[in-house]
Design brief:
Length: 282
């Protein structure tokens, strides 16, 4: 086990953060659900560049999983996660609470989100962003970091969290970090471990199909037709189903008819039991 201190309670977390604050040090928080990979570690390094103290939370949040989803099977690798964080040399503290610390008996409060949370993921996982917003709000209130770093792979989630922090008047600045990809372009994800060797080959086509769609949009192709063609391309490549391929306004995720403002293409597709998401700036 690494020598990094693991803090299991909110009260202890606050006690440990107090002397850093008293000394005027900036605190960065990197919220994670564990099963850490190089994408997560890139967030940690970015956090270190922005603050004197780095706190990483590891908590598999039950509130964002529906009953039929993979909460019980979600990988829990606390020892190796702590070793990876220790190896970075920049993490000061790990906050890894048990479920009852975040959701004590009788817990009855949650957040309802709108704005960028409407559509796309919520069409298929209507419970998801309420659970995410609730746990992230609790983490931000517990740690009160100056900045919090989130990966752009979960782009809609990033926008939801930014809106939540702004709407609730939280002082933390929400920072998005670039997607980290495998050599073939597949976005790093904790769920990639579920892929068989054949599924992994199919998964590597997702980013290529999205990149081709981006080029078509930049060439002033019809957006609705590009979305349809990209969906069909994913199915032809071997994906079992496609939840969505959507080209949206980059700030609001509102549908667009032409490339007249910064835009983003977002996609979610399934291979076997694994659901992959990705997005790219246009």
């Amino acid at each position: 086990m690494s020598t990094l201190q693991i803090t299991p309670s909110i009260s202890q977390l606050r006690r440990q953060l107090t002397p850093w604050r008293d000394e005027g040090e900036q605190v960065a928080l990197v919220p994670t659900m564990g099963a850490l990979h190089q994408g997560h570690l890139s967030l940690v390094r970015q956090a270190s560049a922005m603050a004197q103290r780095v706190v990483v939370s590891i908590f598999v949040n039950p509130a964002q999983f529906a009953p039929h989803e993979d909460f019980a099977a979600y990988p829990r690798t606390l020892k190796s996660d702590c070793d990876k964080l220790a190896d970075t040399g920049v993490v000061d503290l790990i906050f890894s609470p048990p479920p009852e610390e975040m959701y004590p008996p009788g817990f009855a409060t949650g957040l309802t989100v709108g704005g960028p949370a409407l559509g796309l993921e919520t069409d298929f996982r209507p419970h998801f962003f309420g659970g995410v917003a609730t746990v992230v709000a609790k983490l931000l209130i517990a740690a009160m970091p100056h900045v919090a770093i989130f990966g752009e792979k979960d782009y809609q989630q990033l926008l939801v969290i930014r809106r939540m922090a702004r709407d609730l008047g939280l002082a933390t600045e929400i920072i998005g970090a670039p997607i980290v990809r495998e050599p073939d372009g597949l976005a790093l994800s904790s769920r990639n471990v579920y892929l068989s060797s054949n599924e992994r080959m199919i998964a590597g086509t997702l980013n290529k199909i999205l990149a081709d769609a981006c080029n078509q949009v930049r060439a002033c192709g019809p957006i609705a037709e590009i979305e349809k063609q990209s969906t069909n391309a994913l199915l032809s490549a071997g994906f079992d189903s496609v939840d969505y391929v959507a080209i949206r306004d980059a700030q609001t995720l509102a549908p667009i008819e032409a490339l007249e403002q910064p835009a983003r293409i977002l996609a979610a597709a399934k291979i076997g039991r694994t659901r992959l998401i990705d997005n790219m700036s246009i």
